[in-house]
Amino acid sequence: MPRPVAVITGASSGIGMTFARKLAASHDLLLVARRKDRLDELGAQLADEFGAVVSVLPADLTKEENLAVVAARVANMDNLDLLINNAGFGTKGSFWEADIGGQEQMHRLHVMATVRLTHAALGKMVRRNAGGIINVASVSAFLRVSGNASYAATKSWMTSFTEGLCLELKSAHSAVKVQALCPGFTYSEFHDVMHVDRKSMAPPLLWMKAEFVVDESLRCLRKGKLYVIPGWRYRTIVALISKLPTALRLALENAGSRTRNSRESSRE
Ligand SMILES: NC(=O)c1ccc[n+]([C@@H]2O[C@H](COP(=O)([O-])OP(=O)(O)OC[C@H]3O[C@@H](n4cnc5c(N)ncnc54)[C@H](OP(=O)(O)O)[C@@H]3O)[C@@H](O)[C@H]2O)c1
Residue 20 CB: number of other CB atoms within 10 A? Predict the structure, then answer.
């Protein structure tokens, strides 16, 4: 019997690579990212270790022609069990000082790639009444700091979109599951790509391993949980912050921004 297939974007490192390693025991995989060499190496390892059939599709998901190829591949899969919209990146600095090209790419990757791939996957999943989609958002969807305007906005969009899909699936009595995974600070290449020092971002007790984040996501997917915020510290922060009046929340976000900026400048 053919194994179910999981499609993972951003599988060449960090959280995406960890999803691939965890799922290879039960799923065949389609791995998507720009770095083909990384995907080939991971695919060979997982095929060897778990007997998974691993396909690799190098793509820059901010480019329309690449995104169209990946979306067509997803739409043509008959046994797609899981789509994980994970590819993402952060930038630093105020929006008006940032390169506009990078800001647009972030919106294309976090928003448009999620729209297109989810649409490509969901039709067949709903007809089969099976499968799931994990959208990797962030705690930044709930808690902003300065220097993060596009990142927090696109991650908030991801949570809102996922919640909307959940409502539509429930009203259609569908068994298809959707999840907004909202990690806090997680060890990966994310902050290296941004060229920021992890120590200036947050104290060590707020950092999590990608393995923990992925285990939480997959455990909660089995239960059909919509919002997954790994770690009790982050769950507490989000629960408290979402109950505050806007003015108080903004004051806290402002204080957090000042603390981070002074930590960053003392390390420069
Ligand atoms: N690490 C954290 O603290 C943290 C916290 C909250 C949320 N997240 C979210 O978790 C997700 C995974 O990030 P990570 O922490 O695992 O970071 P990471 O190690 O830097 O991984 C990011 C992945 O996205 C891929 N990617 C980036 N741009 C792409 C593009 N244009 N087209 C296709 N793939 C692209 C990268 O592959 P290539 O470079 O090979 O293309 C890489 O595989 C992101 O959505 C991020 O926003 C991370």
Answer: 27
Q: 54-58 and 28-33 as β-strands: parallel, antiparallel, unpaired? A: parallel
Digit-coded pLDDT (tens) for 16-47:
999 999 999 999 999 999 999 999 999 999 99
Atom of ligand 1 nearest to the CA of 61: 32
Q: In the annotation, is 227 catalytic?
A: no
With a 6 A CB cut-off, is 142 part of the ligand 1 pocket?
no
Residue 164 is encoded by which pair of tokens?
Answer: 């909307």
Q: Measure 14 CA to ligand 1 centroid, in angstroms.
A: 7
36 lines ligand 1 (CB under 6 A): no
Q: What span, in angstroms and rounded, lies between the C-alpha atoms of 157 and 88?
A: 14
Mutate to test the pocket of ligand 1, among 12, 198, 212, 229 (most ligand atoms within 8 A of CB): 12
pLDDT, tens digit (0-9, with 9 covering 90-100), for 161-208: 999 999 999 999 999 999 999 999 999 999 999 999 888 888 899 999
Can you tell me whether residue 27 is helix, strand or coil? coil
Q: Fill in the DSSP letter of residue 2.
A: P
Amino acid found at 135: N
Q: How far apart are CA 251 and CA 198, in angstroms?
A: 24
- For the chain, the distance separating the N- and C-terminal CA atoms, rounded to the nearest angstrom, is 57
* Residue 50 parent element (H or E): helix 36-50
CA 72 to chain centre: 21
Residue nearest to atom 25 of ligand 1 (CA): 10
CA–CA dist 216, 230 (Å, integer): 6
